[in-house]
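User: Write out your own:

AI:
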Amino acid sequence: MAASLHKAQFPLNLCEIHDKKELIGYCKTCQEKICSSCIKEKHTSHDWETITDILREKKHSLPRECKRIRSEQLPVLRKELCRFDRKIEEEGARFEQNKSSLNVSRQEYINEINRLFDLKIDECRNKSETAVNSFKEKRDALKQKVGYVDMMTTALDKDINTLPDHDILDMEKEMRNELEKALCYSADKYTCTTVFVPGRINIQALKDIVGEIHSVSMEEMRDIDKYTDTIMSVVPIANTHAWILTGGTCKFHPRLIDMEGEEMKTIGSLCTDFIISKNGDFILTSKTKCHVSVLTEIEDKISPIDTKPLHPTFVSLTENNDILVTMRDDGEQYGLVPTSRRIVQRLTLTGKVLNTYEFREDGKTRLFTFPVRTTENKNTDVCVVNWLSGSNGELVVLYKDGHVKFTYRGEGLKSETFMPSDVDSDSKCRILFTEKFTKAIHMLSAEGKYLCTLCQYEQIRPYVISLKDDDLWCGFKEGRIKVLKYKR
């Protein structure tokens, strides 16, 4: 039955290029059957063997290879099928949870706004159904390929000695092509999260009362696995290139890499952290030298900004092309005394101090214990990762004038301890941050409400992030770099 089935799928054993000459050889370079004229022309320098010789090898090795595929690779692919099923179930449960939140809020509102709630439920359902359909489509495509590879390997295993010679080669090629396509499927590459955020009860703004539907999907575009040292900073400059800073033997030298991880250029200057201004200049911090320096595109240094006696650590760029720099004194990392200085400063590129964030409104209570990463949100809020100890931290968000807007300490996360490591924001002022114990990238609203987990990992930990247009570059503690397509 297998023989008759596959005879209908594969062409006759004659060359379609050279007057239907008999196909007598197999080109390993091109993985195709060839005739005597093909050998003399296109394939003269390629690695090829006669059909007889290669079939002798295939009949010996192919059944064993098919058994290996069924025992090792097909179980992995079936596991991915289960993971897609789990994502579909989770999205369905998430819709039910969102719908429940909407209905609870509905009871608090007047009858006139029921129509708006119904519209929001429909919107939420449509987005969730879109996500479910997307997962189902990918799952079904993988399921089809798994079934096909299973069928082919079974046929080749059982009927290797009865199948026509050329069918064996054609079937193997088709099997391997489908297997290669199937192995590209991974449930981790696809994420789509829909979250309902209830609004405030305000009779003057009924639409705000109903709230918003946040729908963000992430798809892994690149996985660069070329480094073993922690990725300390990543600064994308285009969709295809980014500057990075790593630890290890090459630590603290910014390097330009492409999407494959190939190094294009290295900056000779040592630094603790760096950022690139809107006109292409490098702004580098030096914790040991206590200064912030500006390096032009042609690597000419402008007079450094002296920060003595404070040590600048991390730097970020604002919308106005100013910089935010975290600084601290020589004291113990987490042990504060009355003379300790732990600040975030907003500076111009010429060194003029625009704002110093150090104390709360009373002028006495410290804002920070150990300020690490910082970023300016699109609404001019200042978001600061503040470490309280070696295993505990918080996210402090300030208005531009320095007043505290909110402090986030992990509410909504499934973890008893909270240790953020980096922070960024998107065009809708939502806050993205990496977190140590959940090994994930999470999202907050601009008001500090936990929205969702964008992506989470089992073995590796997201450490730094940087959003450029729709590409989210993520550097990991273990040296990996991933480029995620961020769809809002």
